[in-house]
């Protein structure tokens, strides 16, 4: 059983911990991606698992064995780094076999393992080349090969695609995911790229400021973010975050956003009652925005469009929200929670908004566009704690919709 477990792992260089009581298990055969912005502690966590760093407290277990005090070479883990670190004077075959030679594996066995790994990686015809005669993607596969031939209990990968250009990255990430599934080797993979995490992982662990924010499947994180950080970090383009305030309108709970008041349907009103403050952050996924008013209650947002990106499959309309009387307190809270992310607005009075629309939508830069979001598609967060109060209601799955339809 090749699980990897971090038990209550903390690492502090000075007062503020770089990793703060992390509990995480990578299950046997699982591809778990550790994702987070720069400085969140991902590499530190991986280095602790590898044995290159000692935690201040807590334990690391590999296959159920406590390896916290075991030297890196004796942990039976293989690491793939972003710099491939291939020996330039050696052939691919010798690069792949090098670690095995050091470990005293005899020649026949070495050759067999290299041939097998090369076949899985599709690099058999490159075995006699030297690294300089390989493309970036091929070098990456050789680096993977070196890890595979060791037949370790688990792979540890630290941003292995970051030296590749965008197109190659897409190809190689699919290859790595496929190879991992073929071999079934437990893998802990670190990246700052949420798209990489979403496309490759069985489960994703989101780190921010040394704390584990959420652990779940890509679908969990996208549809049911645990807090505003995860909602803003996962998804492309990112979730729009708009400050709002809870009020009472004719005895009913209402949400004031961007100068309008939306009386909340009962189910949403119940969910927001848990908020520690009347200040609410409203999360809107760009793909949930409509240009026609939907049936039922909806937010109606006015956005001054300043950039239109036509991607072919969809059109992204970016602009500034006409905020009206957005509460100052919630606006400040929104700012404080998301200011760390460079892509999000840093001026608390200005709210950028992005809508992902049908490619045929006739929009131009410079206009003011009314945009609608059905109330059930809103994600709502406590502006003080960032905790999720409610997530968007799932649309009916085709089978469920079919079952609900009258019989023919
Ligand atoms: N030797 C050290 N002494 C003090 N602080 C350190 C040390 N090494 C790392 N840190 C700090 O620990 C934090 C986490 O670093 P880490 O490299 O794990 O982040 P990361 O999420 O992998 O970021 P990146 O994606 O930029 O590599 C950072 O704030 C970093 O400055």
Indicate the topology:
Layout: E1 4-12, E2 17-26, E3 31-35, H1 42-50, E4 57-62, E5 65-66, E6 77-80, H2 92-102, H3 107-121, H4 136-149, E7 154-158, H5 166-183, E8 186-191, H6 194-200, E9 203-208, E10 211-216, H7 218-223, H8 228-233, E11 240-249, E12 252-257, E13 260-263, H9 266-272, E14 279-284, E15 298-310, E16 315-321, H10 328-338, E17 352-357, E18 368-374, E19 379-382, E20 388-390, H11 398-404
Parallel strand pairs: 3-8, 3-9, 6-7, 7-8
Antiparallel strand pairs: 1-2, 1-4, 4-5, 9-10, 11-12, 11-14, 12-13, 14-19, 15-16, 15-18, 16-17, 19-20
Helix pairs in contact: 2-3, 2-4, 3-4, 4-5
The structure holds adenosine-5'-triphosphate (ATP).
Keywords: ATP-binding, Nucleotide-binding, Transport
Domain ABC transporter: 4-234
InterPro entries: AAA+_ATPase, ABC_transporter-like_ATP-bd, ABC_transporter-like_CS, ABC_transpr_MalK-like, ABC_transpr_MalK/UgpC-like, Mo/tungstate-bd_C_term_dom, NA-bd_OB-fold, P-loop_NTPase
Number of helices: 11
What is the CATH C level class of the largest domain, in words? Answer: Alpha Beta
Helix content: 25-40%
**Radius of gyration, CA atoms, in whole angstroms:** 25 Å
Structural class, judged by helices and strands? alpha+beta
Spatial separation of the terminal alpha carbons: 51 Å
Q: Strand arrangement, largest sheet?
A: 6-7-8-3-9-10
The main β sheet shows up as: 6 strands, mixed
In the predicted model, the low-confidence regions spanning at least 5 consecutive residues are: 338-345, 395-408
Shape: elongated
Proportion of residues in extended strands:
25-35%
Kindly state the mean pLDDT as a whole number?
86
| CATH evolutionary superfamily of the largest domain | P-loop containing nucleotide triphosphate hydrolases
**CATH fold name of the largest domain, please?**
Rossmann fold
Taken together, the total number of domains comes to 2
Q: What's the total count of β strands?
A: 20
InterPro entries: AAA+_ATPase, ABC_transporter-like_ATP-bd, ABC_transporter-like_CS, ABC_transpr_MalK-like, ABC_transpr_MalK/UgpC-like, Mo/tungstate-bd_C_term_dom, NA-bd_OB-fold, P-loop_NTPase
Protein name: ABC transporter
Domain ABC transporter: 4-234
Keywords: ATP-binding, Nucleotide-binding, Transport
